[in-house]
Amino acid sequence: MTFEAMWHDLAPIGRTASGGYFRQPFTAAERECHAWFLTECARRDLTVHTDGVGNVVAWWRPEGAAGPGVLTGSHLDSVLDGGAYDGPLGVVSALAALDLLRERGVAPSRPLGIGVFVEEEGSRFGSACLGSRLATGALTPAAATELRDRDGVWLADAMAEHGLAPTSSDLLDGVGVFLELHVEQGRALIDHDAAVGVASGIWPHGRYRFDFTGVADHAGTTRMEDRHDPMLTHAMTVLAANKQARLQGARATFGRIEVVPNGTNAVPSRVTGWLDARARDEEALTALVAAISTQAQDRAGRDGTSLQVTPESVSASVHFEPELAARLATEHDGGAWPVLPTQAGHDAGVLSLAGIPTAMLFVRNPTGVSHSPHEHAEMADCLLGVHALADSLERLLR
Ligand code: GLV
Ligand code: MN
Ligand code: MN
Which residues lie near ion ligand 3 (Cβ < 5 Å)? Predict the structure, then answer.
């Protein structure tokens, strides 16, 4: 199976009329992607290990391969109405790179694993990198058991439908190094005029639930000055978040909102908005969220509403090992690949924070657009990415 053939087979799964993908964890579409992956592993005679959560590592252990393994791979779930590349590019490239290593007759002295982690996006249960956090122990099964999706379905019930459960895992035992290939989610590689890059680190980022509570009332008969409207407080908070992020060179987004009772002719009683905030270091992230929260609280005081802020999923700053990144960037034919930070979260960050030496390769995205149906990478760049991954793995497997 060539890269193109695998990409073609995976492409229709979970795609909707918008051209975007809904591959939320433990849904039919996402499970179909996992079944597709298992078929590709069987084709290659890989030894598949699955943990209780649904994370998978498929090992190639040819004769003579021993000791800590080299892991590559990514994830197959998507954000709501996401693109085709975020996650799947790393998985399909991993399979194609393994094929290339075999074609080259490489005899690795270490095992090579291809991993797929569940719920990387946190699009259903709100907790980013759920699968890799459970696999590394960064999230406990007890904490995971508390998670519910927006329809009120408990994580444990969603998993149970597929014979899975929020449990701890020994799936990553024996992993000596992790290398994740990912589509770039910004425009840095365009600026560098490079098809492939290497990650230096990941900005710290978090998701914070803002619960604004007011008083439900009639949209017509309630005088404007008599209202306690949580929508107003929320609206001002969205503007404050945008302004604070601009002032601090950071990122702040309210991309999700829930309104109760969500009727046109009533002042709402409650508005819940989710802030996604990211900044270059942890101090800056704390300052950003504090500034937004303070302005929101001040406004709540003036609107006669109240506000509670709850951090739901916070990801620490990641600094990938500079020596490993530099080796990957330079020890190959052709010019050096640029080394750049990213503002996007990845399972690679979770594994790195768990003490596993980790690196990432990025493949150019010609528009920089991601988490959108318009996310794209040119096939020629994807194939360059496969070669870059195979070359990097070959050196790591020596
Ligand atoms: C995941 O892609 C994230 O950065 O939220
Ligand atoms: Mn991703
Ligand atoms: Mn993503």
Answer: 86
